Amino acid sequence: MNKSDDENLRPATKLVQGGRRPEWTGDPRLGGGVVNPPVWRASTILYDNVADLEARGHATHDKLYYGRRGTPTVWALADALTGMEPGAAGTLLYPSGVAANSAGLLALLAPGDHLLMVDSAYEPTRAFCDGLLARYGVVTTYYDPLIGAGIADLITPKTRLIFLESPGSLTFEVQDIPAITRVARERDVLTMLDNTWATPLLFPALAHGIDVTMMSLTKYVGGHSDAMMGSLTATRAVWPRLRSTAYQLGQAVSPDDCALMLRGLRTLDVRMQRHGDNGLAVASWLAERPEVGRVLHPAREDDPGHAIWSRDFSGASGLFGFTLKGADIAARTRFIDALSLFGIGFSWGGYESLVVPSNPVRTATAWTDSDPLVRLSTGLEDPADLIADLERGFAAR
Ligand SMILES: *Cc1c(COP(=O)(O)O)cnc(C)c1O
After folding, report:
1. Which member of 53, 136, 247, 285 lies 3.0 to 4.6 Å from 47 by CB, making a disulfide possible if both were Cys?
2. What is the mean pLDDT of residues 87-114?
3. Is the pLDDT of residue 60 over 70?
């Protein structure tokens, strides 16, 4: 058995061993192997003869066929991510997180179907539902992130999928995922989760009843702000549908980018601990500041999502939000512009801290807080320096 297939290994060990199969890292003719799966770049694959070409035409995985179907570098990353999700049958890789979300929704929904989408979803996910999915005849109903088992009341005979994201983008509400997946299973509805914030390290989604879990690998898995990719990891029942849709859409990723993602994955456990510690240290300092209205961080005891978060998650990442009490948009701009260690930029999960102004979009629920919202991605710096930077921001406000 391959080391990365050992279900008894703990997550941090799986991150180190995953995808390093001897057939991908070594060559028996050379008598040894390398540590990292090499970068296999390919479009064309050469066959020994016509019979070989015809036999491999039906191969779907783990056999070299054509560049678009992947090479060992791509399979190594997919294999390592599958190993992180107990109960998973496989992982598909996409050129971005948005591509992964869109491909999953397309694979699981057909014209006439009904989709339940969480109201706190990442904005481009909403845009896909309101745009291409609507054009394609799928009806989306947005639901309150705090609905829990009450989701049952929104399920119709046409409902095929419930999409979750927890904590929610920008506003960090924690969903009662086990309550929702229980209802979904009873009613024969599939569930898909955007698990970018937690990764399987802090929340193994399939073990909590989710059918398809998505990650923007661009964020914590890559970890170094230099590559984009997304993943879907699924149960045995759903995986073949995802795979055939990905093949039809021609979704393929670069082996060079997979090598970067694999490099990030090996250190995810230690980075995540530091991101979590830094985030909580900064959040706790902010909570004491007179300039701050609310801190939106589920690992804090005063957060409304804290009870569910501490029941279901084994830790926090470094992304959270806060409001500026009584400030207007101009004051928020002055605050952000005065920061120097927090770079102003989208994305998150890299080693460097980032800040963005955020403006939640809601349709099923109302975002009633009138104070302007700020989102921080705390990186791996010394938290005392991050706090000093924020203090300079408050002085400028
Ligand atoms: C960034 C992000 C995505 C999209 O990922 P990309 O790799 O940037 O396309 C999806 N979901 C969430 C929650 C994100 O923050």
Report:
1. 53
2. 98
3. no
